[in-house]
Design goal:
Shape of chain A: globular
Radius of gyration of chain A: 14 Å
Strand content of chain B: under 5%
Helix content of chain B: 55-70%
Radius of gyration of chain B: 16 Å
Strand order of the largest sheet of chain A: 1-5-4-3
Helix content of chain A: 10-25%
Number of helices of chain A: 1
Order of helices and strands of chain B: HHHHHHHH
Structural class of chain B: mainly alpha
Oligomer: heterodimer
Number of strands of chain B: 0
Strand content of chain A: 25-35%
Chain lengths: 90, 163
């Protein structure tokens, strides 16, 4: 799953149009929301026993499995983080 | 930097213009718009940072073709700041058209809507973005129909009136 250090760095088509007063490029659907997880620095680090954050650039990274596992288990691991995500559109 | 020699860049801006037209006409939440957004993901991942800056700016600039644009210029008065004019001139001297576009975006209060539309068209034309340039030339001609220079730069008459 792709992630960014700040919702303002997301591609234009993923940022809801209603936010174009804050980020002029916003072209996303207003049915979507920008979410944030955690408060820590955007660096390579484990998230829990199954997932880790791996950066490929300073403004893009992946929440990925720490080791190879079936897709369904990866999805379950992601779903288990659901309560840690909050809407952040400020 | 690749821009127009990068097929993914060309594909992305084609999709961006399509999405803009749908959003302008009130179909931002349509299935068609969502399908275009999905198609934008792959080419976006192939863009360089410079190309991303260009397409992000273009996305913002296309909003100025709409009445509720977050970028608002005065209705008339041309350029009303000597400092702003000097900045435009310096960027022009350097051939830095992205910089001119950025100035129009960041300091809209210093230039009227018709002049800004014309300058955007001219900058995009200089950058090789003829299809995008045409949209801004059409808007300049619409905003000041008495200015025959603007009309001269319009190649194709708009098939749908901008809102």
């Amino acid at each position: 799953m792709s992630v960014a250090p700040d919702w303002r760095h997301l591609p234009s088509f993923l940022i809801p149009k209603r936010l174009n007063r804050i980020v002029l490029k916003a072209r996303g659907s207003n049915r979507q929301h920008c979410w944030r997880m955690g408060e820590g620095p955007f660096v390579d680090a484990p998230i829990n026993n199954y997932l880790q954050l791996r950066l490929d650039t300073a403004i893009h990274g992946f929440v990925e499995p720490i080791q190879s596992l079936p897709l369904s288990e990866y999805q379950t691991a992601l779903a288990a983080t659901r309560d840690q995500w909050v809407i952040d559109e400020t | 930097m690749m821009f127009r020699s990068n097929p993914h860049y060309l594909e992305f801006i084609r999709l961006l213009r399509e999405l803009h037209l749908l959003m302008r006409d009130g179909f931002s939440e349509s299935d068609e718009a969502e399908a275009i957004r999905d198609q934008m993901d792959f080419p976006w991942r192939q863009l360089s940072p410079e190309e991303i800056n260009r397409v992000d700016g273009m996305s913002a600039d296309l909003y100025t073709l709409e009445s509720d644009s977050p970028i608002q210029h005065p209705e008339a008065g041309g350029i009303n700041s000597a400092e702003f004019a000097a900045e435009i001139k310096a960027a022009r001297k350097d051939g830095d058209y992205d910089r001119i576009l950025s100035l129009l975006r960041d300091k809209p209060q210093f230039i009227s809507a018709d002049r800004a539309a014309f300058l955007r068209g001219w900058c995009y034309e200089q950058l090789g973005e003829a299809e995008t340039a045409e949209l801004f030339f059409q808007n300049a001609a619409r905003l000041d129909s008495a200015n025959d220079l603007y009309d001269v730069f319009v190649v194709d008459q708009p098939s749908v009136s901008p809102t």
